[in-house]
Amino acid sequence: MIVAAPVRIHLKSKDEIRLMREAGLVASGILDQVCDAAKPGVSTWELDDIARKGIARHKVTSAFLHYNPGNKPPYPAVLCTSRNEVIVHGIPRKSDVLQDGDVIGIDFGIFRHGFCADTARTLMIGNVSPDKRRLVDTCRDALEAAIALCRVGNRLGDLGNAVQSLAESRGFSVVRQYVGHGTGRQMHEDPQVPNFGKANDGKRMKSGLVIAVEPMVNAGAPDVEELEDDWTAVTRDRSMSAHFEHTIAILDEGPWVLTRPSSTPGHP
Ligand code: MF3
Ligand code: CO
Ligand code: CO
Questions:
Q1: Staple 105 to which of 21, 82, 139, 263, CB 3.0 to 4.6 Å?
Q2: 90 assigned to some structural domain
Q3: Residue 155 maps to a domain
Q4: Across the strands, what pairs with 267?
Q5: Cα–ligand 1 centroid distance for 64 (angstroms)
Q6: Are 41 and 100 in contact (CB under 8 A)?
Q7: Residue 48 Cβ contacting ligand 1 at under 6 Å
Q8: 0.90 cut: is pTM over it?
């Protein structure tokens, strides 16, 4: 029998999780400022600039700037700004200007005192069609359904199943190529947290696990295409896509959504 290599999951102490909470509050606060500025006529480059100023003001560091996994070029910005058919990893640009009716995913990650917080929201700009609104609401609901299951003893497959079944029940699809992840001293740690799967399958969650749960929901097919810049991930059929993400600590008392200010331990 071949035994799979043990996966290096770094469980966090209560003190480490308290530090991660501080990172989560800073990330959430800066993302609030970015979101407040997202209006028709504003470029994604301007949004990135707001986030850069927030990073400087709080004396934290970007988790994204110069990030270079594998064979990709170093990531050039502090935000990922993913408009309409862009699923994730859209690069902010002066030429990328928000329009009335857009949906835009904004993903932001920082390190503070050595720990990462990673969070994303999809915003609706101006008057958005009912179809797009339903897509965004579904992706947000899918994340909340997964968060409610972030409890010691539940399995990662329970989260994926919750996201997938909710999205598919409303006629949408979930992306397979990108997944959520453990987070801590590295932005991306084990385990992977897929947005699809079977209930009662996969690893059990333990107290001290910290994960970034991040459903990506497409209006059309789940297939992904990567653009020339080696980062921008779009839907192959160019249908609309939404993305939400929170960094969540699993505690004996229940989930603590570290990137949501109103959350307290056990109260998502
Ligand atoms: N924050 C993204 C995630 O949710 C990763 C962004 S990598 C970057 O996992 F290089 F594009 F910033
Ligand atoms: Co992210
Ligand atoms: Co993430």
A1: 82
A2: yes
A3: yes
A4: 264
A5: 6
A6: no
A7: no
A8: yes
